[in-house]
Amino acid sequence: MWLTLWENAIRRKLRELAEGQRPMVIETQGPSMSRYRGYFQRDVPEEDKELTHVGPGTPCGEYLRQYWQAIAVSSEIKDLPKAIRLLGEDLVLFRDLGGRVGLLHRHCSHRLASLEYGIISERGIRCCYHGWLYDIDGTILETPGEPGDSAAAAKLRETNQHGAYPACEYKGLIFAYLGHPDKTPSFPIYDTFEIPGVELVPYSVIFRCNWLQVTENGMDPVHSMFLHTRVSDPQFSETWGVQGEVQYYDGKLAVYCTIGRRVLDNVWVRVQENILPNITQSGAVLSMDGKTTKYFGRNSFFRWCVPIDDTNTLVVGWASFGDRTDPKEWNTVENIEKLEQGEVFDRSYEEEQRRPGDLAAQTGQGPIAIHKKEHLVSSDTGVAKFRARLRREIRALQRGNQPLEPREPPNGPIPTYSGDTVLRIPILDPQNDVRLIRDTVKSVLKILAEGDQLVGNERDERVILGLKELESHYQ
Amino acid sequence: MWLTLWENAIRRKLRELAEGQRPMVIETQGPSMSRYRGYFQRDVPEEDKELTHVGPGTPCGEYLRQYWQAIAVSSEIKDLPKAIRLLGEDLVLFRDLGGRVGLLHRHCSHRLASLEYGIISERGIRCCYHGWLYDIDGTILETPGEPGDSAAAAKLRETNQHGAYPACEYKGLIFAYLGHPDKTPSFPIYDTFEIPGVELVPYSVIFRCNWLQVTENGMDPVHSMFLHTRVSDPQFSETWGVQGEVQYYDGKLAVYCTIGRRVLDNVWVRVQENILPNITQSGAVLSMDGKTTKYFGRNSFFRWCVPIDDTNTLVVGWASFGDRTDPKEWNTVENIEKLEQGEVFDRSYEEEQRRPGDLAAQTGQGPIAIHKKEHLVSSDTGVAKFRARLRREIRALQRGNQPLEPREPPNGPIPTYSGDTVLRIPILDPQNDVRLIRDTVKSVLKILAEGDQLVGNERDERVILGLKELESHYQ
Amino acid sequence: MWLTLWENAIRRKLRELAEGQRPMVIETQGPSMSRYRGYFQRDVPEEDKELTHVGPGTPCGEYLRQYWQAIAVSSEIKDLPKAIRLLGEDLVLFRDLGGRVGLLHRHCSHRLASLEYGIISERGIRCCYHGWLYDIDGTILETPGEPGDSAAAAKLRETNQHGAYPACEYKGLIFAYLGHPDKTPSFPIYDTFEIPGVELVPYSVIFRCNWLQVTENGMDPVHSMFLHTRVSDPQFSETWGVQGEVQYYDGKLAVYCTIGRRVLDNVWVRVQENILPNITQSGAVLSMDGKTTKYFGRNSFFRWCVPIDDTNTLVVGWASFGDRTDPKEWNTVENIEKLEQGEVFDRSYEEEQRRPGDLAAQTGQGPIAIHKKEHLVSSDTGVAKFRARLRREIRALQRGNQPLEPREPPNGPIPTYSGDTVLRIPILDPQNDVRLIRDTVKSVLKILAEGDQLVGNERDERVILGLKELESHYQ
Predict the structure, then answer these.
(1) What is the largest CA-CA distance in chain C?
(2) Residues of C numbered 47-66 whose beta carbons fall under 8 angstroms of chain A's beta carbons: which are they?
(3) What is the predicted ipTM?
(4) With A105 labelled, which of A403, A443, B164, C432 sits at a CA distance of 20 to 30 A?
(5) Looking at beta carbons, which residues of chain B come within 8 Å of C366?
(6) What pTM, to 2 d.p., does this model score?
(7) Starting at the edge strand that comes first in sequence, how are the strands of the sheet with A69-73 ordered?
């Protein structure tokens, strides 16, 4: 520690200060004063627009629009429309009486009244002001104020289309595609959408900050050791505080990071993945502590981080509960909030200060974090790789390349890897345990990948067999 | 309707979606995808500044300033000043102890303290900070901090005038003129200000959107058939839902629209008028249903739509109650609110969504509606004419022309025409009833105009006689 | 008064107006209309940036940063950090477990998480996100996510310093210096920091307006005669309403104003001082009425008016209570608020309108008062001098001069003069009493200055003796 006689002197005098006596004249020429650099570091540079500005026409916005996005929880949309803002556009979301969801530009094509006051109809939505009726694809079905036989009105309905985006529902979430209609991708099905014994619980929260701050957190495993464990009380198991061996990988459709940790006689290998551009997925959070053997544990959440606009983000996804992840008894509203940010959402400012979660950490970075003021270190490698990858993809799209499109292989859903494997691999050689952990991580990844050509039970069996074999070498 | 086998297929699969099964790959190349035009219609053009920007120096602001405006209800101004914002200026409104109303620039000429904290005096208002006393015309009466014999202070008082606008009170409302003082028009008296048996009830409400959206609604009779009737429950009589024959007229001082409707054996002729630039007047609203004969019914409101600034509007006026309009038993606070927007004002967001009124419709168009995104149709003719008329008047003023000034004729108040006439004119020929209704409207207008050279009872008798004669032709 | 027959006629007709009769056509050509100048005075010029813009790099901001500023009351800082904004910078203030206060740039140097969620540590503050630990001078003590033996991390910690400003505590307040560290001035001790029998009570309030409006008020003695006395009820003694003889002085470290008042047989001399740049100090407020003899009364408050940013100001200082100022029985929370602005702070808008205090007066001038719209008079001489002095100092600094630095003389604290002296000097000659008062003020100032070379009791005795001698001449 940095204790000098001078430091003690300062402490003594500052204590005298606090007790109200004449303060020592603060050294004005000494080296200690020059350590105070606040005055020289007051600049506030611009944000990295390429990765953070998401409104219509922006490169990043255009990139995000190439993909189906989860935009709401189905159960929020009942018999009223919902005003919703996505990627800087004012829209309205509704489900018509025929059960079809629609996502339309908010202002009626007639005279701009807001469709948030529209009337849900058998088919589509009807504007409150003059009754124009829009189908879910924006077709103008009726323009009631006009004479029934009006050719001009018929022509207007045929030649104009109210702005709309295709939307669909799936497993309790509503999805939409906001990109160029001629390039509508298929709706990608990932393996974690259907895992026997695992229940998907839809949820949605809002972060009042830029989308990138929320999303890149998935490639930052080190924060869990601090924010969620060491800094205040452990929000998850205290074993999360164990410094892990971290590696980062740039895959075809996603970026990954792996954390290898020793927990007693076990090596705990965790895989987290950010599926491009804005999906994050990770292993069990609430119940995982590395103390119990586990073979090919799966994810505990799958979430889209969708920009509302440049300074607000909507997180929509599923929490997963079941034996292969956080068991079902963990399925409560409060626990889902903790899954999302380590703490529940509705708290006082003081509670947030005392036990900050991801919401405080990410929102506190500012409405749009100014990267030029950062000092990244080796533990930020995942974040840096993720940003670099996004930038490459954004620029490729700007140059006219086809965006990367996730497609299921011929025989089943897209395989993913998030989750935990805990193998009983006791310490062999204390001097070389780091090496052992790293090798174990590599081996686990290799085994996971061997399952890629298989699906469902076959894949599980193959991977689990491989992991048990690996473990057996160390018994 | 647009039902194809393919559409049914989509519906079926979307239902499967909602039930959680694997979603069909959404057709990505089909014609249906290209119907989703949201991506191509994301632009947000500029608003029409010429008609909507109203601050100091703007053409539209200058135009509106040529006219006396109702700016408050007398009973709101008691023994305290009121901070008020009009046409983008911060002002203060008060009534001194001598009973005279004053409308002054809000910031004291001395050191800018706000006169909303001023002290109401026997004569004028006294600033709280250093006691400077201002008369209602802005004359600086006292500068107490200065020596009583100070020549400099006397000179300052003589050569400087605090910004003020002439104001007066009339029938429970406060009016002001905010234009060039050398061009102060006389205060125009309209016929509906004094109708025997009709009580004027002052009121005031605020719309959080641009003045034009609020005012042009008066020339949009078609919205009543939808917003106030068909869309949710009828807010007025259900006969308002009957599609009417609508005509629009550009008059000397006002623009008008007429709606002719058949109601059983009656032809109901309604006249609505927008007196330039920002007054709207219309017939009975709460009790009118066209089912009972009526000769020369009069207006139910006379209201000024005064800009607070570019995105907020103050509506001030009178509701009228009496036999010739909505009868006196309708005179309640709640009914006046319904008169104003079809619904009461203080409601939850959900209530507003379920039963939207004019407030939802107009505010929902945006802070300033972007006309370039509109698609006007024939039923918007009145709105289009009104905007075109405003633009002509605004440009004429910019070129240096005298503004149109309403003046009473030599023998009495300015005649207006808003109101309802219901004549027993049964269907003659079902194929030609539209023609009959149109002819009736024309005849009614002609008869109304015949009364122009008369006033009061004489005018009423002449017009009513004429209407009865017209009706008698059809018995 | 200005009463003409025509005026009476207007009054009569306006009364008729209010009673609902046909309003007289307002004279449109008469001279009275041309008195309404509102239309010609609608301009809103720019504010005086040189004196009001205070963000990083601005001339005025740079000037204010040369001085130690009081920034918080010690007792507000307990075991949590406090987000604080000063001179347009987002900062965090805390006291570590070792009792040392720190003022740091708010966003962590690592990835910008807000240190308002940081964890108070034995030494410094630890960021919640990844645990980086900062000492109070910004030294990066720990970067826990990095391997313990990482040379790169060690280098980062050595070569980077998190933005920090030196802070200290003294008599219940926290101070900081936000200027160039090489030019850190000594912490100036003023005589009023230690007056035997006088208790300093720390307090802090916020004014939602520019710093200059709050600070210049100290050089405006005339407002006390109105705002605090004549305008509503006396907020202090009614003798404050006596018009005084006012003089202004430009001193070396401060600007002063003196007010001489006759109160019965007494001449009451009051000295107020604004110590450059943003400290204000004045005599007893709550109990002072000039009716009782007093020799060399001292100050009742000593306050720093610190910009939060261009439109918000933090006032931090001490209220003083004791026999030489407002006696101790006046020491209540409510009274300290009245000391600050004449009224308590937490009031309804209507209460504020009826009995406005400094808060209403100064905030009502606008977020930044537009000086070009003012009309200064002789009683604003102090304010004008103060602004001119600030401008000179700001420009001198811009040219590279050393800022004026308050330093204690060799033998004790910096002498100040705020306070009240009340001498029994009856009226000699009613025609020349003003002369007598002015001479008395001059003499009192001279006597006060004679004490400059002495300190403590010696100084008091010398001055008090001198004042008693002066008084004795008139018995």
Answers:
(1) 96
(2) 56-57, 65
(3) 0.91
(4) A403
(5) 107, 112
(6) 0.92
(7) A69-73, A173-176, A167-170
